[in-house]
Amino acid sequence: MKQNLYIKKKTYVVIFIIVFLILVIGGFFYLSRKQISNNANGHVAPGKKDTNQILKADTLAWKAPEETDIPAGQAGDEIRYGKELIAHTAIYFGPKGKVAKISNGMNCQNCHNQAGTKPYGFNFSAVAGSFPQFRNRSESWVSIAGRISSCFHRSLNGQSPDTSGKEIKAMIAYMMWVGKNVPKGIKPKDAGILKLNYLNRPANPVQGKIVYTTCQTCHGKDGQGQLNEQGTEYIFPPLWGKHSYNDGAGLYRLGNFAGFVKGNMPFGTTYRHPVLTDEQAWDVAAFVNSKPRPHKNQSKDYSIITDKPIDFPFGPYADNFTEKQHKYGPYKPILEEKRLQTKNRNLNK
Q1: Tell me, what's the pLDDT at 12?
Q2: Which of 105, 213, 263, 270 could bridge to 120 as Cys pair (CB 3.0-4.6 Å)?
Q3: Following DSSP, what letter does each residue of 18-46 receive, concatenated?
Q4: Strand residue runs (E) in 65-174
Q5: pLDDT, average across residues 187-206
Q6: Domain 67-188: what homologous superfamily?
Q7: Does residue 287 surpass a pLDDT of 90?
């Protein structure tokens, strides 16, 4: 009788241990699967880089927040002022600027369409989550204020604004608000501009001149743009000449210009319904950037020459292709050579 009772108790203990182990092991697998599921949905364990999240972000479209989402009070006033400065930069910093006379009369919005909210129109969706940012051009880490200052020097062909002043702080506040829903380190697929396939030939300025006839209604036959009645800002920016962007601006690289016009020009075009073919976009880019414009000394840009983009039009280069080919293409041979050099460097490490 006592022996049976002992066996019975021992059996209960064994069953309890087995059930306990099942619960522990089951719980472990449940939590592991939940972590995997969370990572797939964009929740990452602290200290870990989730490449799946980055790949997912590349497939997601971005939509700018509504102006009704701008907060009330002083914070909202600063954001609204920042938007005003992006849309009408020249009124505050142009030749007749209220704050300072340090730029060419163009507005940030001329490149960053719809005050930096248009898909594939150099929008600000990734700004909040990607700065400070390492820039190969300067081989240094750059803040948002530093990036704005660089645009003043290049696209606005001017001088540095006071980066500690309320205007630049307001511009930063607006950019941060525009990208407030984008996680740190994530770049939405429609940030920046369209990336066009390279042609099998050089981009042709002569053919581009023909394409430009559709652009001159707004930008003028001589690329001079259109000023407003007060002469305080350009309604349509000049595309060459002394009031346009200088040759240090990002748009002076043909790949950037072609991708921008493909998704945004003629005025009112969207990336969903482009007007120009890829070839027309490349050719009109070649035509516009063959015209005279202010020069910027770029001898200190890309001090590591292997970091130069293949369409950067100023040598020296790590290859034997000419400045003309780097500017107009064809780019595929340059790209193939760059890949080969990278492969060889990696093998020699």
Answers
A1: 55
A2: 263
A3: HHHHHHHHHHHHHHHHHHHHHHHTT---T
A4: 133-135, 140-142
A5: 96
A6: Cytochrome c-like domain (1.10.760.10)
A7: yes
